[in-house]
Amino acid sequence: MCSNPFVKTVLAAVVFAAASTGCETIASADPNALWDIVHLDCVPAAQNTGKTGLCANVNLTQHYALLKDRNGVAQHLLIPTERVTGIESPLLLGPAAPNYWADAWTARSFVEASLKKPLPDNLLGLEVNSKYRRSQEQLHIHIDCMHADASAELESHRSDPPGQWTWDTIGGSRYRIMRVTGPAFDVDPFDIVARDRAGSDQMGMQTILVTGAGPTAANDGWLILNSGTDVTGGSGSAEPLLDHACAVAHR
């Protein structure tokens, strides 16, 4: 799969680290670890053998791979198969850009397979960290359970007028929240946030989370949460609203 001895050595180190700790936890040692796993292992495996290597899935047509993170019982990461550094990348914007959020919502099936049960849509969360609160220099969308308390706090937004921002404090941090309606999740939160957070500098400060506005998002809609290091009381990471232990799945 990798004939270059140097590539083999690099990949062996990445694989050892991934097997020893959470896939994102290794970032303190190598901020390119996720990219190396996808680029050096998963994509070549899919191209050459039809298998997925270290990844749970590789979709060459849609340009993403899914990796089960060892941090959590069910957490998966959606990672582009092209080099995309993070939320600040212009490659994420525009009509020709892949909608990785829609792909991540569909990929919830891998989280549910790990849990061996379906999740109501308002107990599933997708999240991207800001440039200043991430550990990897490759875009990755966290797909995991929501904290029950965060879902309960968001219940009041279940009937918000669609397409409008509303400010609220969730989990101790300030977020603006927009409900979007279905029946399918076909909007791109990167584009929505970039409307008034234009440019790589501003986008780099942002964090985004998506969850169902209610148990059935096709009926209730979806909530897009956005905060940033440029917001008073805000945050560059919405990841604390996710529960990597998935306590909501064991009620």
Feature tags:
8 helices; 9 strands; alpha+beta
Question: How would you summarize the topology of this molecule?
Answer:
Elements: H1 5-20, H2 33-49, E1 57-59, E2 64-68, E3 76-80, H3 100-106, H4 108-115, E4 124-128, E5 141-145, H5 148-154, E6 165-170, E7 173-180, H6 189-194, H7 200-203, E8 206-212, H8 217-220, E9 222-228
Antiparallel strand pairs: 1-2, 2-3, 3-5, 4-5, 4-8, 6-7, 7-9, 8-9
Helix pairs in contact: 1-2
Subcellular location: Cell membrane
Keywords: Cell membrane, Hydrolase, Lipid biosynthesis, Lipid metabolism, Membrane, Phospholipid biosynthesis, Phospholipid metabolism, Signal, Transmembrane, Transmembrane helix
Membrane topology: Single-pass membrane protein
Uncertain stretches? 1-10, 16-27
Distance between the termini: 44 Å
Shape: globular
* Helix percentage range: 25-40%
Taken in chain order, the helices and strands follow as HHEEEHHEEHEEHHEHE
How many domains? Answer: 1
Oligomer: single chain
Count of helix runs: 8
CATH class: Alpha Beta
Q: Helix/strand/pairing class, anyone?
A: alpha+beta
**By CATH's scheme, which homologous superfamily applies?**
HIT family -  CDH-like
Give the CATH architecture.
Answer: 2-Layer Sandwich
CATH topology: HIT family, subunit A
Strand order of the largest sheet: 1-2-3-5-4-8-9-7-6
Radius of gyration: 18 Å
Strand content: 15-25%
Largest sheet entry: 9 strands, antiparallel
Average pLDDT over all residues: 91
Give the beta-strand count. Answer: 9
GO cellular component, one term: plasma membrane
Subcellular location: Cell membrane
Keywords: Cell membrane, Hydrolase, Lipid biosynthesis, Lipid metabolism, Membrane, Phospholipid biosynthesis, Phospholipid metabolism, Signal, Transmembrane, Transmembrane helix
Protein name: CDP-diacylglycerol pyrophosphatase
